[in-house]
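Re: the 154-residue chain
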Amino acid sequence: MAQIATIPKEVEDTLKRFRGTSPPLICYIDQKSGTPTVRIDSGVLDEDEEFSIETLASSLPYNAPRYILLNHKPEGEAFSKVIFINWIPNGCQTVASMLHVGTLPVIERLARNPKVFLVTVYYRNVSLTIHQVLEVNDAEDGLTTEIIDAKLRR
C-alpha cells in the first residue's frame, strides 16, 4: 500500500503493540524534517492529570491533525473498547490535511494488528480490535465522552 509520509520502525512497533491498557497514543506528521514523517506526540497529555476525553480534546492543537488510539469504556457497557480517532480540526492547513488523510489507511492498518482475527469483542484481552474509527473535526462540538459514546452505540 502506498503511503505519503514515512513511518519509522519505532512508530510502527508502538502502534502494533498498543493494547487497551496502554495510555492513549497520539501521532502526527512532522513536516519540518524535509520528508513528512509520522511521529509520536508525547507532549499533548500531562502524565499527572487524570485522563478523560474532555482533557484530551482541550489539549489537542486546533490547527494540526492527529491520529489518536485509546481505550474507552462507554457508560453502561461491561467492556472497554479500543477506538481510533482521526482528528482533523477545521483550522488546519490544506497540505497538512492531505498528508494526514493520505497516511491514514496505513496508520489504521498498523494499529489494527491484522495478524489476529476475533469472532467477538468479548475476547478483548486476546488481541486488539479497533471497534470503530471516528473522525472528529471540532473539539468543542465533536470530542466529548457523550458524543464518543453515542457514536459507539450506532
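The two ends are 30 Å apart (CA to CA).
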